[in-house]
Amino acid sequence: MLNFLKVLGVGKNQDATDLLTEDLALVEQRVEPAKKAAQVIYKKLACCLQSQQGLDADKRTKKLPLMMLSVSMAESFKDFDVDSPIRRVLEMCCCMETLLAKTLAEFEVQLEKEVLEPLNKLSEEDLPEILKNKKLFAKLTTDWHAARNKAQASTGQAQTKQDGLREEVEEAWRKLENIKDQYSADLYHFSSKEDSYANYFIRLLELQAEYHKNSLDCLEKNITELKENHNQSAPRLSGPSGKVYGAPLLSHLQHSGRQIATPIQECVTMLLQRSLKEEGLFRLAAAASVVRSLKGSLDSGNIDHSEFSSDPHAVAGALKSYLRELPEPLMTFELYNDWFKAAGEKEVSDKLEQLKVVLGKLPPENYNNLRYLVQFLSCLSEHQDVNRMSPSNIAIVLGPNLLWPRTEGVDSLLDMASASSVQVVSVIEPLIQHANSLFPEAVDFEIPEPPAGVDPTETKFHRCRIGNQGGRTIFPFCTQPFVIEGKI
Amino acid sequence: MDILWQYQFRIILLGDSTVGKSSLLKRFTDGIYSDVADPTVGVDFYARSLEIEPGVKIKLQLWDTAGQERFRSITTSYYRNSVGGLLVFDLTNRKTFDHVKEWHREVSEHVLPHHMVYILIGHKSDLNKDRKVTREEAEDLAAVLGVRYVETSAKCNSNVDRAFELLTKDIYELMKMGEIDTREGWDGVKSGLSAKVLYPAEEEAEREKSCNC
Questions:
Q1: Which family does it belong to (chain B) (predicted)?
Q2: Contact A27/B74, CB-based, under 8 Å?
Q3: Computed from CA positions of residues A124, A126, A127, A130, in that sequence, does the dihedral angle turn out positive or negative?
Q4: For B157-206, what is each residue's pLDDT tens digit?
Q5: Is B63 left (phi over 0), alpha (psi -120 to 50) or beta?
Q6: In this prediction, does ipTM exceed 0.90?
């Protein structure tokens, strides 16, 4: 109609939008897209929901697929006897899936309240109201144009007729003005609310982030607990106390009231007794069954030294395996990069300086156990002529058990392949080589008997500064070659 | 529908949130007051007519906004399409008084090269014991801005009608003096169509407008 009038060449014709101020005309163009966006996003977002809209969190939880999973787990574990590790893990999983389902249901309730409902109101109530006025505005504009054209065409007709038409024009104009004000108010309103409409989408992301975080927190917390319980329960058949292999260093030390972890101290003690000269110690594999049995003993705390001292490779294997099974390497994840940086120094003096710095950053428990172990390894390497385990060789076989990167993500897998197994030697070797200066503390392991057949030529190069007095080594700062005297 | 008015003035209420703009408006247009009021959301307008002198009826179209909201793209047209503004502050809240200058400046800048007719309103005069702004200070500010000052209370219905009447009269006088005129595409002042218009010149313009020939 409007176009038709324009075609007729009626001067200064305005369509509805022309009557609006420029900035309101701009705002007007956003209303329709806003409605479309709210409509389609509401629909798609509702599709993302796993629970039924409109229900409370409890009712939603019950119908979630996760809840079905949890129920199946509950039904499944009933068929196991109470001691079955599968049952114990399933019980825990069942609880966790329920928790996850609840978290999801709460998230979806909130999402519905804070995002879906406002979007729906926007697309179904608020914006249609504005668009209704827009339509009315357009219609009344048309009416006014029509009335005006009719009046114009009436020139030359009876005055009364002309006056009547004039009144009609005025009436149409008045109606048009009214709706124009109302519609303008709508547009001002819309414009002032645009920010808060945009906020619905920010809120969506915030809620999603919160939901994922809650789920992750719940999972992480429980997985650690589950793993600890699970690892603890595995060797239960062989002993009552458990919680050594695979347990965090700190919790084991606290639990047992020790300074040095059981496997480290016990294995070192056993190895010191008669295995320092064993060729390929830590390099050669032992019978898996013996290692397993020893690990069981260490886990349970009942260790018969005489049973295992005769099999040094099993002892070394059990020690290696303890180090590798720690949830965090003895030299920690956190300092992973620091170690390599320090070991990368060209000058030996700089390298030692930096290694000392990193050592100083270790938690006291880790430092103490590492010191104990490295001092022993240093001692072991004194016998490299016989056992062929030079600091470098020891570093190659033991390094990867002392330091590895966090195994998360693809990057760290690459790290694992390249850095950890090869480069780790560059870190461990100097530690062993320079144990004396890096670890000024006295060696605190007992040497039950002097290594057999130590001859004077050998002791010349003996860098161990081990003196023994009443079972404790002394002379911590002795720089002279020193003969191990053994127990006095 | 009340169409028996000669002129329509569009007037906006300005001031921080919680100074009582909506209460003032409700009292003036509906004659009621409520102690509990929700914050204004977005934009709305109300109307009331005043007989400014015998036979001259003015329809006031009063636009209310949420004080904490600032429009982005549309501030200019919102302010420009008004002829008068009530600068409202809360007598018991010093900050709202301090902000009056900013409101005045913001609006005045937007309506340039035109001018807006203001009145300064010290609101909530019933809470005299909690007053943080003296009458003298407010009158000084009014003098600086070159506007009238009235203290009102929507709660006690004190001076509310008077405040709107004073502003309306000021605008009307400026119109009579030719300082303010209806303009094409401007919603600040509109002439009534059904009643006979005051000035012949005005009528001529009106006829032109409705014919557009």
A1: Belongs to the small GTPase superfamily. Rab family.
A2: yes
A3: positive
A4: 999 999 999 999 999 999 988 888 888 778 889 887 544 444 444 444 44
A5: beta
A6: no
